[in-house]
Write a structure and sequence with these properties.
Shape: globular
Low-confidence stretches: none
Distance between the termini: 20 Å
Oligomer: single chain
Order of helices and strands: EEEEEEHEHEHEHEHEHEHHEHHHEEE
Largest sheet: 8 strands, mixed
Mean pLDDT: 96
Strand content: 15-25%
Radius of gyration: 21 Å
Amino acid sequence: MPNGQCVLLKAERLLDGSGSPCLEKAALLIEGSRIGAIGRQGDVRPARGTDVTELDYGDATMLPGLVDAHTHLVSPGDGSPGDDLADESDDILLMRAAKNARAALHAGVTTLRDNGAKNRVIFSLRDCIDRDLTTGPRLNICGRPLTITGGHMWYFGSEADGQDGVRLEVRKLIKEGADYIKIVATGGSTRSSFPNLPSYTVEELRAITDEARKFGMLTAAHCASSQGTANCLDAGVDMIIHCQFREADGSYSFRTDLAQRIVEANAWVNPTIYNGRAVIVKLEERRREGRLTPAEERQLEERRRRLADHMETTRRLLEMGAKVIAGSDSPWMDYSPGGFVYEIQALAEAGMSTSEAIVAGTSAAAESIGLGGAAGYLKPGAAADILVVDGDPAADLNALWSVRDVYKDGQRVERGVK
């Protein structure tokens, strides 16, 4: 479709991303890279004399391109531990990231936040997409996650300690072109880290958030324990990632006081529910095939317990009014690329309505990463990032898997290219 050409899309219904009821018998006019008009069929017309292409999708739904607020595009999503990424060359990681970005775009994700990659790989990917050397969603990137020496994801290349050290690293990331600052506030899956313990001190975290705010940058923090979350709230971090209520000994305890602090701080929460379920799905498949070892059997039971705890935490946060959004954390560990819809469905299982879950994966996700004016909504003047799916996702979220077409900046994505 040539730039500047008008395209009139029609479908049985349209969801604008705001959570409002669907517009029935809908029409949407694309003018170049922007949405020109939205309304009922018959009411939306291009200017007289304009060359227009008309596409009628029939019993389908138009909605905003999805916004995945948490990805790691350099990861294969095949169960490989993150530590193994340190052994891959940047060239291989860039090729993999480009492949994963295409998979996300083809699945309807037109905007995504990458939450950390090795060296300058994601900066290079963004440049390649901007120069049309490859295709992919609009990227919001941190470049590398900021972590203590030996901390979770240290192998990506931004270890920093002490208040002066973390300020310097924030400045380096901003100089390289970071859109926000990702903080690793507790340990994680990295072998040399301690998942249930906080990493940075509150003073170090405050130095990071202070330095980021000087440059108008948002912050987001990996928090796998309650104390890590509390420290981040003390420091004014904008987004709590994972938000697992684990004590230092690994036990689970929902902290009502901490949840209330999250609500009062108006912090965004990205629970990343499906990442844990993906491991369960893989282990259950091995069990059906009779290939599950005793150690894996124990792992499966532990994973199920942890998932139940995480679902309870998310449900109670929602009931208390926390701002919860969708971010997949794919393709980390066993979460394969192109599966963002799993996370949207998981939020519905945790207590969101289908409408709320769609908002969590469109406009709310865009707001949480500072792109509320650029993504997540269908409205006149907005970027023409559009997902067309068969059926009605507001009635059944499974419809989000039935992708008919994806438009990014008004251009129809050629999804046959792998």
